[in-house]
Specification:
The chain has a 9-stranded mixed beta sheet with strand order 2-1-11-10-12-13-14-15-16, sandwiched between helices. It has a 5-stranded parallel beta sheet with strand order 4-3-5-6-7, sandwiched between helices. It is an alpha/beta fold. α5 links the parallel β5 and β6. α1 crosses α3, α2 crosses α3 and α7 packs across α8. Helix content is about 30%, strand content about 25%. The mean pLDDT is about 90. The chain is built from 16 helices and 27 strands. It folds into 3 domains: about 180 residues, Rossmann fold (3-Layer(aba) Sandwich), CATH 3.40.50; about 220 residues, Rossmann fold, CATH 3.40.50.12780; about 110 residues, 2-Layer Sandwich (GMP Synthetase, Chain A, domain 3). The longest helix is centred in the first third of the chain and has 17 residues.
């Protein structure tokens, strides 16, 4: 049965469960095990360490780590202080990393030594950054010097008794700033309140019917909201346990599931297709999984997966800003649908003029909360974007759905120009900004090309400056040096000019409809399949 949480804050969940079951194992990571009590203690020590560096309530602190226990210790420790976590994608570098740290006003960054080089390369462009905490640095005596920035090791940070100064953190207070994909501009930092994290965890627990005997397999990156809000928090509030993997690996997946007796996994994107494409095994159905929670599987994929692996798939619809307003459950499940609206939200589908559409017709999904603080508070430092998203007092998702006469919703398409590849949300604006920085490029447009794994591949359509030239491979190398690997385009199409409207807006729909043409460069054909992973 789901635990009744008295203190509806992120750290309040941990503190209550640690008091109730201090010696019970919660976290499994490689060969390590951590009890509820041990995680609570390490979070308090992290809180004291942050406090000693001057971090106080509402301060913004970036976390740039791969999946590991220290991420959780830092995350819960910041929550105890009322500080605001800013998870940073470990693949980011250069201008995008600079933008995210500056836009969120991070004064402190906790970072693995493996990623320190990309941070040090932009440190002189981060005037508000005053503390860098290094994890895995081999020797405190050789800590790097950054002008105007204090550096300490993570070991020094947590070398204390955990006696931090408690403050009054409320459910409506900000807990995290999570960057979403920019579509017509830079990525936006969605400010999430503590109550949002609990609301989403409760929705997932209701969908999957978690109990304390469950063990959740968490292989998605902790710098994404899915791993934090839809895996870690549900495991906590249900009193279950969690296996944290370094990353998702198709070859390791079933071994981990069987070895650790995992009963649940959250899937995203093309994970189902990847697992289905593996060679058939006689023991495919011999696994402890009882349920998988996710989104984006059509009815055919869902049926094939369930029949082969004998596990129930339950789908929902959501996005970072709003959480999960639509979901199926064990007892109300319709394959191919996003489910029905749950008790936390009110929704409607509208046409381009804002009028509600009829049953069976496609319309943009608009959402607003029925329960306080179950959605984002704002886009940090972007009041105009916040007002635009919430026009008419409804949050505009930018996604087209339809509803049947029984109240089940079905996803149709994205209205926005965001792309999604290998489970990562990609800003077309940021891809274009990087490509446009090449001296030979006049302008570009990034569009989605459907992938055989069920998500998108990135195509960049490029017009060059008069008298200039650049090869597709040169553009690929340009991108590889300046953006995360998952953002690098697979396809490059060179055009004399981009198609435009009379008002000079690029007609991306034309480029999407034309898709991969005979003259489109495909880097997978040149570099092999590994280039796109």
């Amino acid at each position: 049965m789901m635990t009744d949480i008295a203190d509806r804050t992120v750290h309040g969940v941990l503190e209550q469960l640690a008091a109730e079951r201090a010696d019970r194992n919660f976290l499994y990571f490689e060969e390590q095990r951590f009890t509820y009590g041990a995680i609570e203690q390490m979070a308090s020590r992290a809180a004291k360490g942050f406090e000693s560096l001057g971090v106080t309530q509402n301060d913004k602190v970036g976390i740039m780590m791969s999946n590991r226990p220290e991420f959780l210790f830092a995350w819960f420790g910041l929550s105890k202080l009322g500080a605001v976590e800013v998870p940073l994608n470990i693949a980011h570098k250069g201008e995008i990393l600079t933008y995210m740290i500056r836009q969120s006003d991070c004064s402190t960054v906790v970072i693995e030594a493996a990623f320190f080089e990309v941070l040090s390369a932009v440190a002189d462009r981060l005037p508000k950054l005053s503390n860098v905490i290094l994890l895995d640095w081999p020797c405190a005596a050789t800590l790097p010097k950054l002008r105007g920035i204090r550096t300490v090791t993570y070991e020094v940070l947590v070398d204390n008794r955990g006696d931090y100064t408690r403050c009054n953190v409320k459910p409506a207070d900000p807990w995290a700033i999570m960057f979403t994909s920019g579509t017509t501009g830079p990525s936006k930092g969605a400010v999430m309140p503590h109550a949002y994290a609990l609301a989403q965890a409760e929705i997932i627990c209701g969908m999957a019917e978690y109990t304390e005997v469950d063990r959740l397999y968490n292989a998605l990156p902790l710098f994404h909201g899915n791993a934090q809000v839809l895996s870690t928090m549900p495991a906590l509030i249900s009193g279950a346990s969690m296996l944290l993997a370094k990353r998702f690996s198709a070859s390791q997946f079933w071994y981990d599931i069987r070895r650790h007796g995992c009963t649940e996994f959250n899937y995203i994107g093309g994970i189902l297709s990847i697992l289905l494409k593996s060679d058939l095994q006689t023991d495919d159905a011999d696994n402890p999984l009882r349920v998988m929670v996710g989104a984006g599987a059509n009815a055919q994929v869902l049926k094939a997966f369930e029949e082969r692996f004998k596990v129930t798939l339950i789908e929902s619809y959501g996005m970072s800003e709003i959480g999960a307003p639509l979901n199926n459950t064990f007892t109300t499940r319709r394959p191919g649908s996003c489910g029905t609206v749950n008790a936390y939200y009110e929704v409607k589908l509208v046409d381009d003029e804002g009028g509600e559409v009829d049953t069976g017709e496609s319309g943009e999904l608009l959402v607003r909360p029925r329960r306080s603080n179950s959605m984002m508070l704002e886009y940090y430092g972007m009041p105009e974007s916040t007002v635009e998203a919430w026009r008419d007092l409804w949050f505009h998702t930018g996604d087209y759905l339809k509803r049947d006469d029984e109240g089940y919703f079905y996803f149709i398409d994205r209205k926005k120009d965001a792309l999604r590849r290998r489970g990562e949300n990609i800003s077309s604006f940021e891809v274009e900004r990087c490509v446009n920085a090449h001296p030979a490029v006049l302008e570009s447009a990034a569009v989605a090309v459907r992938s055989d794994l069920g998500e998108d591949e990135v195509m960049i359509c490029v017009a060059t400056r008069a008298g200039a030239s650049v090869t597709p491979m040169e553009l690929i190398h340009h991108c590889e040096a300046r953006m995360a690997r998952f953002m690098v385009p697979r396809y490059v199409r060179m055009l004399e000019q981009l198609p435009k409207t009379p008002t000079e807006r690029v007609q991306k729909f034309r480029l999407r409809n034309e898709g991969v043409t005979a003259d489109t460069f495909d880097r997978e054909e040149i570099m092999g399949r590994s280039a796109s992973t």
